[in-house]
C-alpha cells in the first residue's frame, strides 16, 4: 500500500490513535511550514524526518520519495525540493549539531544574564536564503532577544511570533555565509530575572535545514 511504504514511520493522532496524514502521494500537515523541522534521516536512505515543533499535534514522521508533496496550511512543498537542499551542504556531519558552536553566558550582573554564541558559527551553505530561530520556553516578560538587523540586505523580510511560551523568528534574505556568521555574532538572549532557571529548547534552521539545536537551563 502506498501510504504504508511512503510513511516509513507515522505518528498517529494523540487522541484518536488514527493516522490520517496521507492522501495518495501527499502528506498533509495541520500547521504552517515554519512550525516544522525537516531533517534528512541519518538511518534511512533518501528519507526525511518531519517534526512538528508544537506539542500534541502532528508529532514526528519519517517519509520517503513516494510522498511527492508535503501540504502545510500555508504552502505546498515538493519532497524533491526539500531533499535537494541537503545536496547543497558542504562536508558537515549532522551528528555534530550540538557541538558546532557554544551558547553560554557572556555577561552577568546581579539582575541580568546575557547569552551569546561564543564561537563563530560554521554555516554549511554558500548562500543563505532563510533563517529561522525557534525557542521553546521563552518568557516575553522577563526575557528579550536582540540582533543587528542592519547587517541584513534592504530587501530582507523579518517577522516574529510569540505564542504559548514560544518565540519564532523568520528572516527571508540573501546573504553570504560570512555575513550570516557576522549576523549571529550579534545575537543576544537576555534574562532579566535570575531568581529561577528554566529549560529552553533552541533551534536554528537555515535554508529550511536544522543546523543547530540545544537544550539549556537559563
Can you put this structure into words, describing what you see?
With 218 residues, this protein is mostly beta strands. Helix content is 11%, strand content 43%. It is built from three helices and 17 strands. The protein has helices at 2-6, 79-87, 177-185; strands at 7-9, 22-23, 26-28, 36-40, 47-52, 60-64, 69-71, 76-78, 103-108, 113-117, 127-136, 143-146, 157-163, 166-176, 188-191, 199-206, 209-217. The strands form four sheets. It has a five-stranded antiparallel β-sheet. A four-stranded antiparallel β-sheet has the order 1-6-5-4. Strand 2 and strand 3 form a beta hairpin. It is globular.
Q: How would you summarize what this structure contains?
A:
With 218 residues, this protein is mainly beta. It has helices spanning 2-6, 79-87, 177-185, and strands at 7-9, 22-23, 26-28, 36-40, 47-52, 60-64, 69-71, 76-78, 103-108, 113-117, 127-136, 143-146, 157-163, 166-176, 188-191, 199-206, 209-217. The longest helix has 9 residues, at 79-87.
Please give the largest β-sheet. 5 strands, antiparallel
Q: How many extended strands? A: 17
Strands in their spatial order, largest beta sheet: 13-14-11-16-17
What is the tally of helical segments?
Answer: 3
Structural class: mainly beta
Query: Which stretches of 5+ consecutive residues score pLDDT under 50?
Result: 1-20, 90-101
- Which percent range fits the helix content? 10-25%
Mean pLDDT: 75
Q: What is the first-to-last residue Cα distance?
A: 47 Å
| Portion in beta strands | 35-45%
Radius of gyration: 18 Å
Shape: globular
What is the succession of H and E elements?
A: HEEEEEEEEHEEEEEEHEEE
Amino acid at each position: 500500500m502506498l501510504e504504508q511504504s511512503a510513511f516509513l514511520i507515522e505518528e498517529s493522532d494523540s487522541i484518536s490513535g488514527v493516522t490520517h496524514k496521507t492522501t495518495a502521494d501527499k502528506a498533509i500537515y495541520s500547521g504552517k511550514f515554519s512550525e516544522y523541522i525537516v531533517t534528512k534521516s541519518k538511518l534511512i536512505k533518501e528519507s526525511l524526518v518531519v517534526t512538528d515543533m508544537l506539542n500534541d499535534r502532528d508529532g514526528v514522521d519519517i517519509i520517503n520519495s513516494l510522498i511527492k508533496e508535503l501540504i502545510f496550511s500555508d504552502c505546498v512543498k515538493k519532497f524533491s525540493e526539500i531533499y535537494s537542499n541537503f545536496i547543497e551542504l558542504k562536508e558537515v556531519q549532522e551528528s555534530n549539531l550540538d557541538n558546532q558552536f557554544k551558547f553560554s553566558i557572556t555577561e552577568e550582573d546581579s539582575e541580568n544574564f546575557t547569552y551569546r554564541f561564543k564561537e563563530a558559527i560554521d554555516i554549511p551553505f554558500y548562500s543563505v536564503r532563510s533563517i529561522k530561530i525557534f525557542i521553546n520556553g521563552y518568557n516575553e516578560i522577563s526575557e528579550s532577544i536582540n540582533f543587528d538587523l542592519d547587517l541584513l540586505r534592504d530587501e530582507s523580510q523579518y517577522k516574529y511570533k510569540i505564542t504559548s511560551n514560544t518565540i519564532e523568528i523568520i528572516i527571508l534574505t540573501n546573504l553570504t555565509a560570512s555575513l550570516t556568521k557576522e549576523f549571529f555574532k550579534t545575537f543576544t538572549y537576555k534574562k532579566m530575572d535570575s531568581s529561577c532557571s528554566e529549560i529552553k529548547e533552541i533551534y536554528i534552521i537555515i535554508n529550511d535545514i536544522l543546523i543547530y539545536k540545544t537544550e539549556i537551563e537559563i
